[in-house]
Design a protein that fits this description.
This protein is of the alpha+beta class and about 450 residues long. It has 22 helices and eleven strands. A seven-stranded mixed β-sheet has the order 3-4-5-2-1-8-9. Strands 6-7 form a two-stranded antiparallel sheet. Bound molecules: cytidine-5'-triphosphate.
Length: about 450
């Protein structure tokens, strides 16, 4: 009997995809879940990120599913895609099956309507190139054109055709990410192609190792020899997206160590440090940290590998990628960790002094300092700030000071800050005590 791949999915997802299958039957089109979700169902891993491919237009179909199920729909007519949201937090992307071709290596692909097989063929690795049908007559049936199931069983990362990495060099990062996350291995033929894609322009290209998987012939439109330029044709933001995903993984140091061994770290940035001991230490602490140390995982990892970069290199790194202002500020702040932690380890340091040191830093930087800190006393000081003092406010304001006769201006701010520090140190408690302290400071 044919195995049903949908019998083990999460209950709420099951109901949603069954409704989608029914809607597809009513509209007379085929609908499939594809890509990462299928891989994770096979591997028994949790995944709430669902991609649906339709054979037939996706937007009107998504609208009819929304109507039938009460989901919220957002459509993107310029891409022919739609997203459905369910109130319990599930998000689902729908797209019509497409084929892609790359006008030149590393370019963004040109897209045309295609069959499901075309759509699977345009994907990165065999384990990510499977689909499961949602229509009633083939409910739960796996579509595995390129041997993804066997590769999943044998723990192999394998591209579908020999131009995969030159078409899209960001897949170099992806291959390592899936390899390390799943504890798979990049199989020899794929590894040969990966190394070829990394070779500098002009160097000779050896024959790829190993056997090619059974797959349709490559349909790229570019000519022989152009592959060598692929790597430079990719705009930094595309690497950045993949690099951030890598940094957000558990134990990113394993991913980076592998990238380094492959000589592939330089596709992100040649100036990146290759010593990941600090990153490893930070990750160990992160895995044991209390839950309320909320932070962006990727940025914490990045701080750990950029902390020791020279100022010039770090600034050029930050200019190269599309960081938000607050992100690059945080990363620059983290580069001063050593100095800040030294100040925080002074033998006598009041809570308000620790507050004064930490206040200028963004939340992610403080989280990083917390993970970076030792000895225990310093950790406690950062914790104290993180949990309590950062959010402390005075119970009096500028208007109160004006009523006390302080003339508007800088002095008001100075007095309020002193009262705040007194409150943090427990020297004034309620509003009455704070007014008295403010009056005494104003009289000085
Ligand atoms: N994909 C691809 N080539 C890329 C990026 C994505 O072929 N450069 C395809 C793969 O089939 C992948 C799917 O698009 O499974 C979705 O991509 P993404 O969301 O980045 O990856 P997931 O496989 O969902 O992985 P993750 O679990 O990290 O979200």
């Amino acid at each position: 009997m044919m195995k049903n791949y949908l019998s083990r999915v999460d209950k709420r997802i099951f109901k949603v995809i069954r409704d989608i299958g029914r809607a597809a039957d009513r509209q007379g089109l085929r609908a499939y879940i594809v890509g990462g979700i299928v891989r994770d169902i096979i591997l028994g891993r949790k995944n709430l990120d669902i991609d649906i491919v339709t054979e037939g237009p996706a937007i009107p179909f998504a609208q009819s599913v929304a109507k039938a199920t009460g989901a919220k729909v957002t459509v993107y007519p310029q891409f022919g895609t739609a997203t459905l949201h369910w109130p319990f937090g599930l998000r689902l992307d729908l797209v019509a099956a497409r084929q892609e071709s790359y006008p030149h290596p590393g370019a963004l692909p040109q897209v045309r309507p295609g069959t499901l097989k075309d759509d699977l063929f345009r994907r990165d690795f065999t384990i990510n190139a499977m689909a499961v049908c949602l229509n009633h007559d083939r409910w739960g049936q796996l579509v595995d054109e390129f041997g993804g199931l066997q590769d999943a069983r044998e723990k192999k990362i394998r591209v579908l055709h020999e131009r995969s990495f030159s078409d899209d060099p960001t897949r170099i990062l992806r291959s390592v990410r899936f390899e390390q996350r799943l504890r798979f291995h990049i199989e020899p033929w794929t590894l040969g192609l990966l190394k070829q894609a990394l070779r500098p322009a002009g160097s000779s290209r050896g024959e790829p190792l190993g056997l090619r998987p059974k797959a349709p012939p490559p349909r790229g439109t570019y000519g022989c020899g152009e592959e060598e330029k692929a790597f430079d044709n990719v705009k930094p933001p595309r690497y950045f997206t993949e690099f951030k995903k890598m940094l957000a993984e558990e134990q990113p140091q394993r991913h980076l160590t592998r990238l380094k061994a492959l000589g592939a770290l330089r596709i992100v940035d040649a100036a990146l440090k290759t010593d990941f001991r600090l990153l490893k230490r930070i990750q160990q602490r992160l895995s044991q940290a209390p839950e309320d140390i909320a932070c962006n995982r990727w940025i914490i990892s990045l701080m750990a590998i950029t902390e020791t970069m020279s100022g010039v290199k770090l600034r050029s790194f930050l200019r190269k990628f599309p960081f938000r202002k607050e992100e690059s500020e945080s990363i620059l702040q983290a580069a001063r960790s050593e100095h800040v932690l030294r100040r925080l380890s002074a033998p006598e340091l009041s809570r308000s002094q620790a507050y004064g040191i930490l206040k200028p830093f963004h939340q992610d930087t403080v989280a990083y300092l917390r993970l970076r800190a030792s000895p225990k006393k310093v950790v406690q000081r950062v914790d104290q700030y993180f949990r309590h003092d950062a959010g402390t406010r005075t119970d009096i304001d500028g208007e109160d000071l004006k009523r006390l006769g302080v003339s508007p201006g800088k002095k008001i701010g100075t007095i309020l800050q002193k009262v705040l520090f007194m409150k943090i140190d427990g020297r004034v408690k309620n509003r009455k005590q704070q007014l008295a302290a403010a009056a005494a400071l104003a009289a000085k």
